[in-house]
Write a structure and sequence with these properties.
- With 254 residues, the chain is mostly helical.
- The protein contains 12 helices and 3 strands; from the N terminus they run βααββαααααααααα.
- The chain has 3 domains: 67 residues, Orthogonal Bundle (Multidrug-efflux Transporter Regulator, Chain: A, Domain 2), CATH 1.10.1660.10; 80 residues; 97 residues, Antibiotic binding domain of TipA-like multidrug resistance regulators (Globin-like, Orthogonal Bundle).
- 73% of the residues lie in helices and 3% in strands.
- It has a 3-stranded antiparallel sheet with strand order 1-3-2.
- A hairpin with a 5-residue loop joins strand 2 and strand 3.
């Protein structure tokens, strides 16, 4: 079956403007343009749009999606299986939060008791699951299962005060990095402060710190589009600037 841009947009729940933009950036081209000048989409385009929307739901940037779906090695069936696993992970996270809310309600109504640690278990588990879903494969390949498992266990066993400190540190890293980028000097005082704050943030996850691992992670921030997008959304070029600052901080050459 074929669809015009209007019919496809209505069926998929996206605007015609979005579909035209997808055409412009080369992520979803119509099958053909008819004699009246209308974009016409066939089954392959419908399937690709579904893939795009799956990726968007999972928070993948359009630039990364374009690289994925236009790659010669792209396997639609495998991508769907991966989507399914990620959606199951999201459901598990929601189930944990729902269970936490239900227990909190019961505690508030006096039907059960709840320790302060239990009040935050759902949030910490969600953070662990989010990290696994987004970056688990790459991190495990780079550092090994044992390192990642110990990091997750450390995060899960954090006290409320430690978790609050971790959250404040994450915000402080971004704020300091953003200001440091304006100086253009990764060796400057602000940039080196950002690198030190980043080290402090890492120690909440890592059981032991090494300069080599810190420098390697900084390089991953540049090499992996998802990490790069996270830092660059605060200021263009921030990922590379942070990498350079950390290399100077650790004394590790490029």
């Amino acid at each position: 079956m074929e669809y015009t841009v209007q019919k496809l947009g209505r069926m998929a729940g996206v605007s015609t403007r979005t579909l035209r933009y997808y055409d412009e950036i080369g992520i979803l081209k119509p099958a053909r343009i008819n004699s009246s000048g209308y974009r016409i989409y066939g089954q392959p385009e419908v399937d690709r749009l579904q893939q795009i929307l799956f990726y968007r739901e999972l928070g993948v940037s359009l630039d990364s999606i374009r690289q994925l779906v236009t790659a010669p090695s792209f396997d639609g069936a495998r991508a769907l299986r991966e989507h399914r696993e990620k959606l199951l992970d999201k459901r598990k996270q929601l189930d944990a939060l729902i269970a936490n809310v239900e227990k909190t309600i019961a505690a508030t109504e006096g039907r059960t008791t709840m320790t302060d640690k239990e009040k935050f278990e759902g949030f910490k588990q969600k953070l662990i699951d989010d990290n696994e879903s987004k970056y688990g494969k790459e991190i495990r390949e780079k550092y090994g299962d044992d390192v990642v498992d110990r990091s997750n266990a450390k995060l899960k066993n954090m006290t409320q005060e430690e978790h609050e400190r971790l959250t404040r540190l994450a915000d402080e890293v971004i704020a300091t990095l953003t200001e440091a980028c304006k100086t253009g000097d990764p060796a400057g005082e602000l940039a080196q402060k950002a690198a030190d704050l980043h080290k402090q943030w890492l120690t909440f996850y890592w059981s032991e710190y090494s300069k080599e691992a810190h420098a390697g992670l900084a390089q991953m921030y540049v090499d992996d589009d998802r990490f790069k997008a996270y830092y660059d959304r605060h200021r263009p070029g921030a990922a590379e600037f942070l990498r350079d600052a950390i290399l100077i901080y650790t004394g590790i050459d490029k």
